[in-house]
Amino acid sequence: MTQTAPELDTADAALVSLGRNLEESRYTFATVTPATHERVNRRSGNARAFGFRDVFGWSRPFGPGVLPDRVVGLMDTAGVLHQDGDEWRSTVRFSMCDNGLFVHSASPDRPSSVFYGACTRVMARAVAAHIDARVWPVRRAVDIRCGIGARAIAVARRRPGAAVLAADSSDEALRFARVNAALARTPGVRHCPGDQLDDVGGTFDLIVSCPPFMIDPARRAPHHLSTAILDQAAAHLAPHGSLVLFSGAGIVGGRDQFQRAAAEHLTGTGLAWTYRELDPDVYGEELDSPGYCDAERIALVMLVATRGPR
Fold it and tell me: Name one GO biological process term (predicted).
């Protein structure tokens, strides 16, 4: 698979400039869960935006005069300004993660959205901790299903000499990952289409991934993408290489459904692996959906599989 250099077109360059403007204004915003976001925006006085955080954090509508003309111009050039008469909205948000600013979709509701989830910061910290504890060098790394690129950038920041590949099947995800790599000043990150290791090819010292794990409308098994990566990992890990895989696990009757599936798929691969919960209770609103009617909670988990020397 050919890797493309992080070259920016006019729209992407404008989005980077927009992020730089926010950095210069000392903008910060910690994205919350969609349920919390909705509750805060329902409060009296929060219906419209009056500044940067309202527009680019809370996704509130605004009109002329709220933002500097230069910022509105950059939004327009970047293609992230939605206009409906005198009411405007940003179609992106900017959120803090790993001491940097990341751009992502303003709403998780569209099918093509590439959203900064409630777990993004937790996963970036976990990747950083894994790299800090790793004895063997990281010369080549990949983040499969990279989303906004936060995990790939976390790797590149701590191993600036490594070749880091961010792969995703979504054009919108690759755009955000490309822009975020520019914002983070991590030129070692490259981008390519693909959502499985076999799409990318080659071997890696570090593989990172968080495939979609919620039960989708097609009612496929929730972990089919994660277990596919487990099935391919042994063929793509270099000696002493490690896979860091994040997923959500439905806990039914006290039993972790993903851990059981992972054990089955890793048997016979020769990979040593560890498994732990990072957060015992995420996406609680999904417990009301038919796919999780038997689950008592959904946990964010991290599986690390390691290849020994050959």
Answer: methylation
How many C-beta atoms lie closer than 10 Å to residue 109's C-beta?
9
Q: In terms of CATH, what superfamily is 120-306? A: Vaccinia Virus protein VP39 (3.40.50.150)
Least confident segment among 7-11, 62-66, 87-91, 205-209: 7-11
Q: Which of 265, 194, 271 is nearest to 237 (CA)?
A: 271
Q: Find the distance separating the first CA and the last CA of the chain, reported in whole Å.
A: 25
Q: Where are the alpha helices (DSSP H) in the chain?
A: 10-24, 34-41, 52-56, 69-78, 120-133, 150-158, 171-184, 197-200, 224-236, 257-266
Query: What is the DSSP annotation of 2-71?
Result: PPBP----HHHHHHHHHHHHHHHTT-------HHHHHHHHTSTT-SS--SHHHHHTS---B-TTSS-HHH
Angle subtended by helix axes 257-266 and 224-236, to nearest 10: 30
Delimit the CATH 3.40.50.150 region(s) of the chain: 120-306
- CA-nearest of 136, 272, 274 to 204 is 136
Residue type (1 letter), 179: V
pLDDT digits (tens, 9 = 90+) for 13-29: 999 999 999 999 999 99
